[in-house]
Design goal:
Blueprint: H1 2-25, H2 28-38, H3 41-47, E1 52-53, E2 62-66, E3 71-75, E4 78-79
Antiparallel strand pairs: 1-4, 2-3
């Protein structure tokens, strides 16, 4: 029974982590930052014209987005068509 309890806790932890990451990914701050990176000439010169998420299916956003306190501290990986990543 301890194994089932551990499995249940791990499952819920994973589900919550994915849900919070999705919330960060869909925030206007992340969308605006990603849009700015895609259209920045310096980023395009370094990575290539087509900048996209490093993991296009489900990118992982590290950090916090707290609108109430005005705190945004995020990081994520991007890749360009030159094969470089940042």
């Amino acid at each position: 029974i301890l194994a089932y309890a551990t499995l249940g806790v791990l499952t819920w932890t994973g589900i919550l982590a994915v849900a919070f990451n999705y919330q960060r990914q869909e925030s206007s701050v992340v969308a605006g930052t990603f849009f700015a990176l895609q259209h920045d000439p310096q980023v395009q010169a370094h990575l290539g014209d087509h900048v996209h998420w490093d993991f296009p299916v489900f990118p992982w956003i590290h950090g916090t987005v707290n609108y109430l306190k005005g705190i945004v501290d995020i990081s994520f990986r991007i890749r360009g068509d030159q094969g470089k990543e940042a």
